[in-house]
Write the structure tokens for this entry.
Amino acid sequence: MIPRHANWAGNYEYSTTNVHHPETIQEVQDLVRDHEKLRVLGTRHSFNAIADSNSALIALDRFKRIVQLDRQRSTVTIEAGVTYGQLGEDLHRQGFALPNLASLPDISVAGACATATHGSGVANRNLAAAVAAMEIVHADGQLLTLSRERDAAFDGMVVALGGLGVVTRLTLDVVPTFQMRQEVYELLPLTELEHHFDAIVSSAYSVSLFTDWQSDWINQVWLKRLGDEALEGSSATSFFGAAPARSDRHPIRSMSPENCTAQMRIIGSWYDRLPHFRSGCTPSSGKELQAEYFVARAVAVPAIRAVQKIKNRLGPLLMISELRTIAADTLWMSPCYARDSVGIHFTLKQDPAVEGLLEEIEAALEPFDPRPHCGTLFRIPPHRLQSRYARLADFQALLRQFDPGRKFRNAFLGTYVLGEES
């Protein structure tokens, strides 16, 4: 069993075992006032030091209430410890849905939004784009309410990387509930992907491409279709040269699909089809590393070609890669800020050689200005990373305004966001 002071994958051990589990807002406020330094833990799905503290950690795993569904405003307010799996089932029961979900339903909504975690779809923005308001405990212990309607800098406050305070509640935009089906196709020729990239990634509500980079084809294409759209082409014998899978598949072909959400065009609720994996299930071995880089959708094909050129280096360390599209957003620290993007994701073995491999991946992607997912592993030098965020100076000003005493600052923020050591 992974100890409490390690992350989900067990690759990162936090610098303190001083972990607090408050049950009330007042307890959070008291903890914030009583500590000179602290950070907040979600469901510990980050693979790097972004949530670390060498002083104290607050875990909001007891903040699990779905507070209010406002049908007139089409919003839902939740506490920070609520996971997407919990929220999805509750929303669907009441006739509502979120427009997008990540591949794992067991991550906390607050943690996912703070790190700009995403799902897939050419028209779907990352998960944080649904945030309409939030409550945070400020560095001085005060409880503040921030909202899209009232705060001019709200787009800088949502993807805050834990730097503005302790988020205790979120209000999210919701839509009417909907149903989906999943179709899986195998062995999509790379030539087809290169010649028809936009048509392929636009062919369903959400599209995921899985590859090991070792062949002249994409291993699997997962199409998540909406309602009646799911019935169109239900008798199709191919998809751009790829053949329909004859049974459920795991993204890693050698693994059992029992933990995956239902495929084979079986209709189901949005919350049980948009994720790749069932709630409460381990997606792969659990003992893995993850890295992800976002490039502009306009340069996706040459970026894919660039990664393909280092396939021999990838082979021994890679479990699987996933390619997904994400629509542009206006959130200052989002990797999809102001550009429609493609995420190139790597699930890697826990091996010391991964560090060198990341440098090779980043060198291959460098001509395409990659932005990393801040909760995964990367080696991009801080000065180069900072140059890729147009609103970085504005976000730095927010950090200093909300946290002048550097209470929520840690080495990750100091190095990669502020260009200084904490």
